[in-house]
Design brief:
The chain is an alpha/beta fold. It is 26% helix and 27% strand. β12 and β13 form a beta hairpin.
């Protein structure tokens, strides 16, 4: 009898309810149990998991790695998918392996290479992968100089934190004065340069931003699955152009993504993003974790989360080629079931004492279902 696989996701994105779903609906019909931890008791991933617990707050990265190792022992975790404090966790890979837990995460050198976007651009450019022009700035004067250089070359400038995930902190610089026009409609990432310079000078604090040209869509986000032998088993591009999404196997995008994944040891699941600068694909960002939209590859007949778990367990799934490319689609919000209101407690140190959330729970009380940041897809003809 094949034993069940116990997988832990720590403080992950709401979209990973679909990651959980794909693990349970794996093509081998193998039993999978999900343990989830989070800092938000209303995380949809906690509700989707078989067992759930709140994470302690205020731990240093080193202390968090110790907490994670203890969780793996107590819960009998076979595969741990770390997002929070990933760098600290992978530094202790041998200790996790010693207690029987495989880390579904890149090699330590891969995680370290992409913690800082400026360093990442330098390292990737050394491989011959094109990157956009960029400037690292810390002061108002450095920001102004960078913006003026980009504008002199005919570009609109934008900036983002040198370290960070997603679109947090991303702003597009304009020369337009702030007016009531910016108070109409939804908030915009566009911000007047004069306001930014004034805020920096008034605060007297240094920042750590990358300034670069604003790159137009389409954006191509390449999901990669790479073995510990540094060989890529899967590379599929997801395209984004406004609301319309789609898929691509164009080597203009896939070849540089494979090169980055292989050379930097981005084992298991990674996500490498590109846009065009002129007519050339350039690197936008590298995520050393499963992308929130990874489940969208199911529209191409792929179950990437399960293939990654198999790879982490030492079972090579072979090369994953999509049997077809799905039709274009749009991403829309969908309600996700939440746990009943109240604290998520983990009172007994024994593994069996985890808070159990039945997979098919009774209908929740009023207010227990909410629209989360999770998404589903609406398919449109290509």
């Amino acid at each position: 009898m094949i034993s069940r696989v116990r997988v832990w996701l720590n403080r992950t994105y709401a979209e990973n309810v679909f990651f959980v779903e794909q693990l349970r609906r794996n093509p081998q019909d193998r039993a999978v149990e999900i343990h989830a931890t989070h800092g938000d008791p209303d995380s949809p991933v906690l509700a989707a998991a078989d067992t759930a617990a709140m994470e302690p707050e205020g731990l240093s990265p080193a202390a968090y790695a110790e907490f994670a190792l203890d969780q793996c022992v107590r819960r009998g975790i076979d595969v741990f998918v770390p997002r929070l404090h990933q760098e600290a966790v992978v530094a202790h890979r041998a200790e996790f392996e010693a207690v029987g837990t495989a880390l579904l995460a890149p090699a330590a050198r891969g995680v370290a290479a992409f913690q800082d976007k400026a360093t990442a651009y330098e390292r990737v450019a050394e491989l011959g992968v094109p990157v956009p022009p960029w400037f690292r700035v810390r002061t108002a004067d450095e920001l102004l100089t960078a913006v003026e250089k980009l504008e002199a070359d005919g570009h609109q400038a934008c900036f983002k934190p040198a370290a960070g995930a997603g679109g947090v902190g991303y702003r597009v610089v304009t020369r337009e004065p702030f007016s009531t026009d910016q108070l109409d409609g939804f908030p915009s990432p566009r911000v007047p340069l004069a306001m930014v310079l004034g805020a920096l000078r008034e605060s007297g604090e240094e920042v750590d931003w990358l300034v670069m040209p604003r790159l137009e869509e389409p954006e191509v986000s390449v999901d990669c699955l790479t073995g510990t032998d540094d060989r890529v088993r899967m590379a599929v591009g997801r395209t984004k152009n406004g609301r319309r999404r789609g898929f691509t196997l164009d080597e203009r995008w896939l070849a540089p993504a494979r090169l980055v994944a292989e050379r930097f040891g981005l084992h298991h699941l990674s996500n490498i993003q590109f846009r065009e600068f002129g007519e050339e694909p350039v690197l936008l960002d590298v995520n050393t974790r499963p992308a929130g939209g990874l489940h969208q590859l199911s529209l191409c007949g792929l179950n990437a989360p399960w293939a990654a778990v198999r790879l982490a367990l030492g079972e090579d799934p072979g090369n994953l080629e999509p049997p077809f490319l799905g039709a274009d689609y749009a991403v829309v919000a969908a309600p996700q079931r939440l746990r009943a209101a109240g604290p998520v407690r983990d009172e007994d140190p024994a593994p069996a004492a985890a808070v159990t959330v039945p997979a098919q729970a009774a209908p929740p009380a009023a207010g227990a279902v909410a629209a989360s940041s999770s998404s589903t897809t609406a398919v449109a003809p290509a």
